[in-house]
Amino acid sequence: MRNILVTGCCGFIGYKVSELLLEHGESVIGVDNINDYYDPKLKEWRLEKLKDKGQKSKGGFNFHICDIGDFNSVKTICSNYKIDAVINLAARAGVRASVEDPWAYLDTNLKGTLNLLECSKTYEIKKFVLASTSSVYGDNTKMPFSVGDNTDHALAPYSATKKGAEVMCYSYHYLYGIDITVFRYFTVYGPAGRPDMSIFKFIKNIDLCKPIPIFGNGKQKRDFTYIDDIADGTIKGLKNVGYEIFNLGNDRPVELMYVINMIEKKLGKKAEIQWLPLHPADIAATWADINSSKERLGWSPKTSIEDGIEQTVNWYIQNRDFVRNLKDAQ
C-alpha cells in the first residue's frame, strides 16, 4: 500500500483518480481548495463520495483544504505524511477563462507545480505525475498530435502555464532525479464532469430547453476521452519512466454536432443552438497519437464516444434535480 498525494481531488479528474486508487487499496491524501470556478456544490458532492469510499477501502482517504499556490500549506501536508507519489491534478482549467484572468492560472498551474516539486525534492518523494493538456499543441495542423510536435506557440495563458509546468518538471527531474510522468489530456468528459465543459452544458441546456452555445460552425473536431479511461491511464503513469510525456486521448475525433445529435436522441429533445463567433484561442481539431501510451504504459481507451455519451446522460438523468440546481458555469 502506497501513500499517494492527489491534488485537486474534488475536481473532475482528481475525483475519479482518487476513487480508482482507493479501489486498488492505496492510501490517498487528497487536497483541494474547493474554489468557485464552477459551483462548489459539485466538488462537495464528489468529496462526500470519496469520504464514503475511503471508509470502505483498505488504504483510506485523508482530506485537507489546501491551495497548492501557497507553499507553506503544501509543505505542511508533505511534512506530515510519508508520501510515495504525487499526482498533481489541481489546476485552473479553461482556455477562454484564462484570457480573462491569467493571474489565477499562473498561481495554480505554474507556481503550484513548483511548490509541489520543491516539496518532492525536500521530502524525497520519488514519483511525480503532472496533468497537462492537449491545448499545448496550439494550432498545429499536423494530425494526430504527437508528443514530439512543437508546442512553443500557446494560444492562451492556460496552455502557456501548462507548458511551463511541463518544462519545470523536466528541470526537477534533471537536477534531483525525480521520476516524472506528464499527461496531455484530450477533452475529458463523463459523469459528474465539469459544468463549464461542452458536453455537460449541452446535456443540461438541451434538457432544460435552453440554448446551447456553439462557437463557430459546430464542425470542430475533438478527441473526446471518457473519464474512466483517463483515470486508468493516469494511475498507469505511476510506473518509473524517468521523464516522459504521454498523450491520453480516445484516438477518434468527432464533430461537435455529432455529439449534440447523440444527446438529443438520448434525451428525446431537440437542441436550440446559439451560434457564436469562433474564439481566437479555439482550435479546429484535436487528435491524440497514443502509440507511446500503448507501448510504454500498456494503456488504451476502452470507451467509445457513443457508450460514453450514453453513460454521461444516464448519470445526468439519475441526478437531474441536483444538476439542475447547480449554478451555471461561465
UniProtKB/TrEMBL annotation:
| Record's keyword annotation contains NAD | yes
InterPro entries registered for this protein in UniProt: NAD(P)-bd_dom, NAD(P)-bd_dom_sf
- The NAD(P)-binding domain, residue ranges: 5-312
Coiled-coil intervals, chain numbering: none
Would the keyword NAD turn up in this protein's UniProt record? yes
One Pfam family recorded for the sequence: GDP_Man_Dehyd
List keywords of the entry alphabetically.
Answer: NAD
Q: Which PANTHER family match?
A: EPIMERASE-RELATED
**Entry protein name:** Nucleotide sugar epimerase
Q: Which organism is it from?
A: hot springs metagenome
